Amino acid sequence: MKTPGKIFLAIASIFSSLTLIQTVRAVPASQLNLEIEGITNPRGNICFTIFSRSDGFPRDGTKALKAECSPIENLPVTLSIDGLNAGNYAVAVFHDENADGQLNTNAVGIPQEGFGFSNNPPILTGAPKFSEATFFVAGQTTTVRITMKYLLRI
């Protein structure tokens, strides 16, 4: 025979579980604002990829959480990405001046168009690691500033 105390504990346990489930569902998605500075001219598109893990970062856009290009309308460029869950992300951007959808490079692989990464890590001998470009998205809005780099410009 169940005592009233045991019945109360069972009911309280069920309600606390339901409250926890509701709390988890109530976590709103975040908006990420990318503020991209240092673009040298308004020609072409600004393209970005956002990754939630290191696999593929930054070169394999097929493994990105999202990849998109937008025409440059104003400088500096601000892009908004909606619906992100709280967590770690890294972003790679490039200035697609000729609007061909790819980062053009010379014969030895040096970019001929502007590029940048979240956290603005130093670029020495190649693209940064995911861990060097990672930032945390939380709350309603997170803003990340990226400064473009242009190599071999005369």
From TrEMBL:
This is DUF2141 domain-containing protein. The lineage of its organism: Bacteria, Bacillati, Cyanobacteriota, Cyanophyceae, Oscillatoriophycideae. Pfam families: DUF2141.
